[in-house]
Amino acid sequence: MQDSAAPIKKILIAGGGTAGWMTALILAHSLRHQSVAIELIESPEIGIIGVGEGSTPALKSFFEILDIAEQEWMPACNATFKCGITFKNWSTKSGFAGADLAKHGLESYFHPFPTPLEELTLPIFMQYAQARVRGANVYAHPDRFFLAARLAQKNLAPKQIAAVKPDPLYGYHFDATLLGRFLRTKANAWGITYRQDHILAAVQDDAGNISHLNTRSGEVIAADFFIDCTGFQSLLLQKTLGVSFKSYANNLLNDNALALPSAITSELSSETISTALSCGWAWRIPLTNRFGNGYVYSSAFCTADAAETEMRAHLGLLNADIEVRHLKMKIGRVDEHWKNNCVGVGLAQGFIEPLEATALYLVQQTAILLGQSLAKNNRALEAQQKFNQEINGYFDGVRDYIVTHYKTSSRTDTEYWRANTANPRDVSDTMLQLYEAWLSGKNLAAAVAQLGIGKYYAAPSWYCIFAGMNIWGNPARLRLPHEGEVKYDLADMDKLIASASENFVDQRRYLQKMVAANVAEISV
Question: Mean pLDDT over residues 406-416, rounded?
Fold first, then answer.
């Protein structure tokens, strides 16, 4: 066991990419008042996987904390704004007559990022959804209730022409390779040492701590503390320290992905689109110079060649000369993210398929919590155990929300979807309690709070997925709402959202002005 009282003089990060460089910057910021050297080594032979190329609003916080302006990093990474995710064809159920959903079809729904307008519209949605699950014949499809959905439908950036209220929360789409390079340049400017070499082995001392790394060039690189960002091989944490891995394969069947680009359109959308296919789902992510596309699927039900053929047909690119990258995924997490003097970050600690773009979010949470402990020189066994419990909670919380997409799907058209939906109760005990609370008509927000899962996905996200997937139980007949059960006029709400959306600017036009201006404040 390491000497948890001795101060750390050097941290060595094994592996680069977005996870490695993001961790380096977060630790440099957290330990800026201490004399700690941070060094990163990465192999020139290992590329960036970059599956998904999307984020949650946590990435916005990352750049704000580090005082890196959007005008600096977004053009360098071909980045665009993201208001949320549309889930298309995940459900076979419609039944929302009168909705203006021509863009995606009735069997879709939008998972929005929050906006200030939801102070007014979110209570309406929750009230109508709660009434609908209790059997009232009221409209409760989520897209109608959220400004972010309207912005995405109109290809608007989440940036206001006149700052009436704070801008909405939002995520980004970006080129993962370019983002990794940008973060590396920024880290080098911050004094973080960088070297390229191939790591052959991690060597332990008599106490079981990692003492140094051996490299192909013959270098012996020692440090007091190590960060494992070596990807799925998890060279330090799993292979050297023997940390066990908990697979999520029992209820997340996808283990492969492929990625390919396609030409961008003149209209630049501000949403990710996830479309359910025969053996998984396809993503479509708009960058300023191209669409990033991919297919996440299960090799138990689909070969790599069949997946590529289906994806090319989905994009209308069957005969196009486009390079396709095929990737294998290891879905699950380690039991101990921090063991002895090593912490795993990124793929080395675990991975959940990129359905909700949570990979960088989990990297951030891990690095931030680690930075807080190291800033206090708190490396005792108790601190490690608390850290591991908290990070495991984040991974399991994200897993539960991703699993819910499959367990609430009504698709049975292929063997893959029948396997996903065969046992809807094959979920965690926490999710069983939440599902039962929803279907019994209990207050879902109260159930989310009672179960302690709101910090992973807040109550509005749970309302959106249940209502968006049309999960209402099986009432024999819908009834008229009781007096006072719903109190709002949806037509007035529609006008409010439509009016608010007029205060936002076209995404392509905004990004073009960002490039042209390259200043902190942009006139739109």
Answer: 94
